[in-house]
């Protein structure tokens, strides 16, 4: 019995050492390949094998981590989300220059696996190329027919702001999370423009619908979905 336990312990130790050795080899290989390209690529923190820079990120508030990294690496830097390299742009001027002056280079959107499955590469947010341009033209044309950009839509926005202000007043100046009431307000503006009516913030059908949509976005953009690709 003692011999069997010793053998199992040796095998488990050997497996652990083998895994550590494999990770070390991967790290050395990745470091070598990066050193040849680092002159052409933005700076950034060194990634770990397989995990990339995930351990250095606050996955609940990654933008806070990106802001702190920008103090060290500048307004343009790169991080590795698992094995995927991601270039991060910080600041209004940098983002505007990328999206306006270099619109073609930065025009494509990264479509995550969950969104690809749900939308099959359709829709304005989840497509690229000619398909995206056609969907955008169609959406803008129909939204203008509904009054987008006209005086009527402005009045609906101002009206909804009064309801939103009423929600904020309920907290009597105390700190609170504005996410939910703002989401309800935005959804009501869309509803008012498209359907001609709005919902009360206490309507369970309305709140459930908006909350489910937000939860889907949260899950599809979570760290577990980043790992699955």
Walkthrough of the structure:
Keywords: Iron, Membrane, Metal-binding, Transmembrane, Transmembrane helix. The structure is a single chain. This protein is mostly helical and 229 residues long. The chain has four domains: 1-39; 41-107, no CATH class; 110-145, no CATH class; 150-227, no CATH class. It is 61% helix and 5% strand. The protein is built from nine helices and two strands; from the N terminus they run ααββααααααα. The protein has helices at residues 2-37, 62-73, 92-101, 113-119, 129-145, 151-169, 179-195, 204-220, 223-227, and strands at residues 76-81, 84-89. The chain has a two-stranded antiparallel ribbon. Helix 6 (151-169) runs antiparallel to helix 7 and helix 7 (179-195) packs across helix 8 (204-220). The longest helix has 36 residues, at 2-37.
């Amino acid at each position: 019995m003692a011999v069997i336990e010793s053998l199992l312990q040796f095998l488990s130790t050997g497996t652990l050492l083998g895994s550590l050795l494999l990770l070390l080899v991967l790290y050395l290989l990745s470091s070598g390949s990066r050193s040849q390209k680092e002159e052409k690529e933005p700076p950034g923190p060194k990634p770990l094998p397989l995990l990339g820079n995930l351990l250095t990120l606050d996955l609940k508030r990654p933008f806070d981590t990106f802001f702190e990294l920008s103090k060290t690496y500048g307004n343009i830097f790169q991080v590795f989300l698992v094995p995927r390299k991601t270039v991060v742009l910080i600041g209004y001027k940098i983002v505007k220059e990328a999206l306006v002056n270099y619109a073609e280079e930065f025009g494509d959107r990264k479509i995550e696996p969950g969104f690809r499955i749900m939308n099959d590469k359709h829709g304005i947010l989840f497509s690229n190329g000619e398909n995206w341009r056609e969907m955008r033209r169609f959406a803008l044309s129909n939204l203008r027919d509904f009054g987008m950009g006209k005086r009527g839509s402005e009045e609906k926005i101002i009206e909804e702001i009064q309801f939103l202000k009423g929600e904020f007043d309920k907290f009597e100046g105390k700190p609170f999370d504005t996410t939910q009431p703002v989401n309800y307000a935005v959804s009501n503006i869309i509803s008012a423009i498209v359907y001609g009516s709005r919902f009360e913030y206490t309507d369970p059908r309305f709140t459930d619908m908006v909350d489910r949509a937000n939860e889907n976005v949260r899950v599809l953009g979570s760290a577990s979905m980043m790992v699955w690709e």
